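anyone seen this seq b4? input:
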Amino acid sequence: MTSRSATRILLAALQIILSPMLLGCWIESRLGAGERWFGACAELVSLLPGWPGSMVRKAFYRATLRGFASRAYISFGALIVHRTAAIGRNAYIGPYSIIGAASIGDDVKIASRASILSGRRQHEVGGDGRADAAPRLSEVSIGEGSWIGEGAIVMANVGCNSIVGAGSVVVRDVPDGVTVVGNPARERRDPEELRSHSAAVGQEGARAWRR
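predicted toks r here
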């Protein structure tokens, strides 16, 4: 038996064990009753430590999200808060990271305590100055091969093979093959570094980012 086959069998067994939780999530989704039960279950499985915890989270999210690759890894304390999220192959989500309505590409690495939000404008402000209670979610995409540094906050799309520095706040789209740092995040103007981590930097994209 190959390791991949063993993983599939283990995930199927774990989904049987989790079936009461998964049934509740399915009913909630079919009724359009929000994500309270899904959120409570996600919080619970986030607290299981080590490799066993990662496998339980993988089994849960594979049954509830839009997509979750069997070879992805989600660490202790990490939380995916919307079932519309999708996680690609070989993606790594670090401890205590928060993932919203996001599409995470293959081979993406997300460090600890990073937040991938569900867009920049989740709450409209009414005429009375109050924010709407119901959020408006928009998908944020992280392109394959990108790295998101520790404590970064990402509110806009990140291209393929790009790097978001630790503590950066991304408020507009990042092109392919670009390193951005700071708050708000801006391109790091180090041509040698950019060439070293990606040969696919689009000149038009880089010029657009600098504007």
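Confidence is low (pLDDT under 50) at residues 194-211. The first strand starts at residue 67 and ends at 68. kinda curious what u guys think
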